[in-house]
Amino acid sequence: MYPTPYTQIMDFICLTGIRCYGYVGYLPEEQVLGQWFEVDLKLCLDLTKASQTDAITDTLDYCHIINLVQDLVKTARFALLEKLAGAIAEAILATDNSIIRQIQVIVSKPNAPIPDFGGRISIQITRNRE
Fold this sequence. Notes:
This protein has 130 residues and is of the alpha+beta class. The protein has helices at 28-33, 48-53, 62-75, 81-94, and strands at 11-22, 35-45, 100-109, 121-128. The chain has a single domain (11-128), classed as GTP Cyclohydrolase I, domain 2 (2-Layer Sandwich), CATH 3.30.1130.10. The longest helix is centred in the middle third of the chain and has 14 residues, at 62-75.
């Protein structure tokens, strides 16, 4: 359809700073009181067609992906950030957006309840479509 001389396409859409309130955490109070989380996504896909046609139908629906992440964080009840990051990757890859080849998910907990720790905890995972 849109032939290209390139042998391997490595285009990315990055969605950063998706801020959500959720109830994920190991401590019981985290599951009850909740806290803020931030999610960053790096989606690997072929954007050749969209870059040539300038048609929104030839790219990814960012709003759908952001809403999916927000809904998942708001409703998830996991003990580990690792589980949340994996669930986000699986949910996005399970959508009908088969153009996504690979996804990198970073889930951050800006205010982890760890004594004398003012930093943030982040989990980063990468998953490929099979």
